[in-house]
User: Which sequence fits this backbone?
């Protein structure tokens, strides 16, 4: 299980770096030049798909290497937990940065992050039963790069330690966002408009 958790941390570090600098940055610049505002949703969805696919492949490989009822329950639970925390912490960081920059357009886009979080969790569960969803040349290449980095003599251990620290920070931010979302939901419920019956009662008083 330790190897599984360490590999998860490295997946998040290596994928985050490669995805941001190799894919997101050039594609975002291209979309900005073409003035395609909705393209950001496609980027976010594709990034979630790739991350979910990598974690699902790792989970399935680990279950296959460690057969048993415990593996069938434990590893998927850890996988889905890290996916939720990764998506939640990423949304929290993006929202905090957008608020600091007074970027109202980014804040408007971030309103739909809850859907991406739910969608990523559902996709992970479905992929465990239909692994073909996660198999394509890009995910295989990314998994190969991550596995190569994981097995490097010195850098591999540095990445493992960094992966653990990254997972801890990701969990912390994920918890913070969950508290914020729950508080926001409770606030909306409390601010719901009163019914006609309640308003009539107040007028009589």
Assistant:
């Amino acid at each position: 299980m330790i190897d599984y958790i360490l590999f998860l941390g490295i997946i998040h570090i290596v994928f985050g770096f490669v995805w941001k600098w190799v894919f997101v940055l050039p594609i975002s610049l291209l979309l900005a030049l073409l003035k395609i505002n909705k393209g950001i949703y496609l980027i976010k969805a594709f990034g979630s798909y790739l991350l979910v696919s990598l974690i699902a492949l790792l989970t399935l490989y680990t279950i296959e290497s460690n057969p048993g009822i415990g593996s069938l329950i434990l590893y998927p639970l850890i996988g889905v937990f890290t996916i939720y925390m990764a998506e939640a912490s990423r949304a929290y960081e993006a929202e905090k940065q957008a608020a600091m920059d007074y970027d109202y357009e980014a804040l408007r886009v971030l309103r739909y992050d809850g859907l991406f979080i739910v969608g990523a969790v559902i996709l992970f569960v479905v992929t465990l039963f239909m692994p073909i969803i996660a198999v394509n040349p890009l995910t295989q290449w990314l998994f190969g790069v991550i596995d190569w980095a994981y097995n490097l003599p010195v850098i591999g251990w540095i990445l493992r330690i960094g992966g653990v620290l990254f997972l801890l920070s990701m969990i912390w931010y994920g918890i913070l966002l969950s508290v914020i979302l729950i508080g926001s939901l409770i606030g909306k419920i409390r601010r719901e408009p009163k019914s006609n019956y309640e308003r009539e009662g107040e007028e009589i008083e």
Q: What stands out?
A: Residues 194-205 have pLDDT under 50 and may be disordered. The chain has one domain: 2-184.
